[in-house]
Amino acid sequence: MDIHAAVVSSFDNPPRYEPLDLPTPLADNGQELVDVLAVGLHPRVRTGASGSHYTSTGKLPMVPGVDGVGRRADGRLVYFVADDELVGPMATRTVIDSRYSIPLPDGANAVKIAAAMNPAMSSWVALRRRVPIEAGQSVLILGATGNAGQMAVQVAKRLGAGRVVGAGRDQARLATLSGLGADAAVALTDDADATAAALAEEAAEVDLVIDYLWGKPTSEAIMSLLRARSDRSRALNWIQIGAMAGPTIELPSVALRSANLRLQGNGQGAVSTRTYLEELPSLVDEVESGGLTVTARPVPLADVEAAWTAPEVPGVRTVLVP
Questions:
Q1: CA dist list (Å): 159 to 37, 128, 136, 174
Q2: Cα–Cα nearest to 207, from 271, 122, 131
Q3: Taking the alpha carbons of 54, 57, 62, 65 in that order, is the dihedral positive or negative?
Q4: What gap in Å lies between CA 284 and CA 282, rounded to an integer?
């Protein structure tokens, strides 16, 4: 059987659909060959393929992807997380490490699972393992108008949040957050004073923040919330996940001395692979049952170059299929 893949030969260019020679799976190491059914084109996939992600080894050529849905030799479906030491999942067939996979129910929607798992996993693990949410606690999602942010709104509600506030720049997508479970929405605008006032009014008393933005918006949001907080000794857990607005922040030291602000991250390294794997079955159940919704757009893998360079459709996750 001929095998093709999306191959990255230069960090400056999109991947191309090319023939691929796969190494023989090492059964003793838990490896097996699977037919790939669906692979999500997530922002994390793009940063890996550009060499800009902090886990990048800089080695080329490479086959991108961080997870996928495949079919084993016995016909069973499996969701798998890519192993950095193996060929990536964006191919018609690939080698997986079975220890980084979980079985899927018969008839599982491969495209929907491939679209939802990665954007949902960050907030799911953050609120289940990094800072376990308590029933009734309130959550602010910074960057709630992105795909992962929209999933985080749903995740927070599913895990028992009493109040969820979504904040983002896209006005049209802000308007849709109430349908996903948000109790309030805050527009992040170029008017710093107006944004600070809106955040203070809607989110000063939240217990947790899921932050996909970082950069200047986070610097300003931290100070806005702390100044308006009625009891600064009550813990404010700030979980940094993404850096869409910039890789660094400027934070006055008084922010850490004058309030019970707890800054921590959630991602590869901050949370073990074992922990992520332990959470996968429950997250699959949520996606399959409809507890978490996602809009997916399947695109043939052979059209990867066009899909890679096409403008992203807000609220829609591109999924590459054979």
A1: 30, 8, 9, 21
A2: 131
A3: negative
A4: 5
For residue 114, give Cα distances in angstroms to 18, 42, 79, 257, 287: 22, 10, 8, 43, 10
Q: Of 285, 289, 294, which Cα lies nearest the Cα of 315?
A: 294
What DSSP line would sit under 29-60, residue for residue?
A: GTEEEEEEEEEE--HHHHHHHTT-STT----S
Q: What is the pTM of this model?
A: 0.89
Q: pLDDT tens digits for 264-311?
A: 999 878 888 888 889 999 999 999 999 998 899 999 999 999 999 998
DSSP H helical segments within the chain, as ranges? 43-49, 110-125, 147-158, 171-174, 192-203, 215-228, 254-257, 273-289, 304-309
